[in-house]
């Protein structure tokens, strides 16, 4: 879907979306672009887990997801974060539909390492025909959950999910919205990167642990044919653009 733009929004960011975010979505829709929003909900999941005395365990930055945590994750993503984002879109006059893996089996996935992380996976396939139809007339709001071939639910990191979906659908652009203005080096935003630079910056410890999964996911998307990945705090900010080849200024 070369006219598809995918935007990943973190759980915290849903509360702080500004008018220019919705204006940009309107501009894309008016230009005939299909828009898919992938939303997280990590902070809300952790807060609810604490209230319910369900321990939060993370290994290698991955939330270990037992059955109780999986139920909690589905509850937060589908019952809290997604309706909140849909409400914001509707208030801005944008037609939008909430989606999850069980809608026409939109997202298929595999366990990453069940013994180590529990019900955590990555996305292996997207029902492109069904999704494309859904995105003709409205913005899609999709939770980062997948279903195995046995219909077992999997929790998927939202950055990884967005990059996997962009890669599988060959989206034209992927935006990873974060709470910093881009990839920072000595306090300054790195305006452009190519995938070959990323491992170097990780080795030099310029890229922090929190940014590493975003960039590695972004590199995989670029290698699979996504034209550009932008890491930024606002759709209207330049941020850091990751491309196969750095364009001339």
Summarize the structure.
37% of the residues lie in helices and 24% in strands.
Strand and helix layout:
Blueprint: E1 4-9, H1 19-30, E2 34-39, H2 42-51, E3 58-59, E4 62-63, H3 67-91, E5 96-99, E6 107-111, H4 114-117, E7 121-126, H5 128-134, E8 139-142, E9 145-147, E10 153-155, H6 158-169, E11 173-177, E12 184-185, E13 188-189, E14 192-193, H7 195-203, H8 212-223, E15 228-232, E16 240-242
Parallel strand pairs: 1-2, 1-11, 2-8, 5-8, 11-15, 14-16
Antiparallel strand pairs: 3-4, 6-7, 9-10, 12-13, 15-16
Helix pairs in contact: 2-3, 6-8
Protein described:
GO terms for molecular function: acetylglutamate kinase activity; ATP binding. Its EC number is 2.7.2.8. Residues 3-233 form the Aspartate/glutamate/uridylate kinase domain. The record marks 8, 214 as: Transition state stabilizer. Substrate binds at residues 41-42, 63, 155. Helix 2 packs across helix 3 (67-91) and helix 6 (158-169) runs parallel beside helix 8 (212-223). The protein contains eight helices and 16 strands. The relative contact order is 0.16. It has helices at 19-30, 42-51, 67-91, 114-117, 128-134, 158-169, 195-203, 212-223; strands at residues 4-9, 34-39, 58-59, 62-63, 96-99, 107-111, 121-126, 139-142, 145-147, 153-155, 173-177, 184-185, 188-189, 192-193, 228-232, 240-242. The mean pLDDT is 91. The chain starts with a strand and ends in a 7-residue tail after the last strand. Strand 12 and strand 13 form a beta hairpin. The strands form five sheets. It has an eight-stranded mixed sheet, sandwiched between helices. The chain is an alpha/beta fold and 249 residues long. The chain has one domain (4-179): Carbamate kinase (3-Layer(aba) Sandwich), CATH 3.40.1160.10. The longest helix is centred in the N-terminal third of the chain and has 25 residues, at 67-91. The protein is globular.
């Amino acid at each position: 879907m070369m006219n598809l733009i995918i935007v990943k929004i973190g759980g915290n960011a849903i509360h702080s979306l500004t008018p220019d975010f919705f204006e940009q979505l309107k501009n894309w829709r008016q230009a005939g672009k299909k828009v898919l929003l992938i939303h997280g909900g990590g902070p809300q999941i952790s807060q609810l887990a604490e209230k319910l005395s369900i321990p939060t365990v993370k290994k290698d930055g991955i939330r270990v997801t037992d059955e109780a945590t999986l139920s909690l994750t589905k509850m937060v993503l589908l019952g809290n974060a997604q309706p909140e984002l849909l409400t914001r879109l509707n208030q801005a006059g944008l037609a939008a539909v909430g989606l999850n893996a069980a809608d026409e089996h939109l997202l298929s996935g595999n366990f990453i390492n069940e013994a180590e992380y529990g019900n955590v996976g990555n996305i292996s396939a997207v029902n492109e025909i069904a999704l494309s139809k859904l995105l003709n007339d409205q913005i899609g709001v999709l939770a980062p959950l997948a279903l195995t071939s046995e219909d077992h639910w999997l929790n998927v990191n939202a950055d990884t999910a967005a990059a996997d979906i962009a890669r599988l659908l060959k989206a034209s652009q992927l935006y990873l919205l974060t709470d910093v203005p881009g990839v920072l080096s000595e306090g300054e935003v790195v305006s452009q990167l190519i995938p070959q630079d990323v491992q170097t910056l990780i080795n030099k410890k310029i890229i922090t642990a929190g940014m590493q999964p975003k960039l590695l996911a972004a590199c995989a998307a670029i290698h699979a044919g996504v034209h550009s990945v932008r890491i930024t705090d606002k759709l209207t900010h330049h941020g850091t653009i990751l491309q196969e080849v750095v364009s001339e200024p």
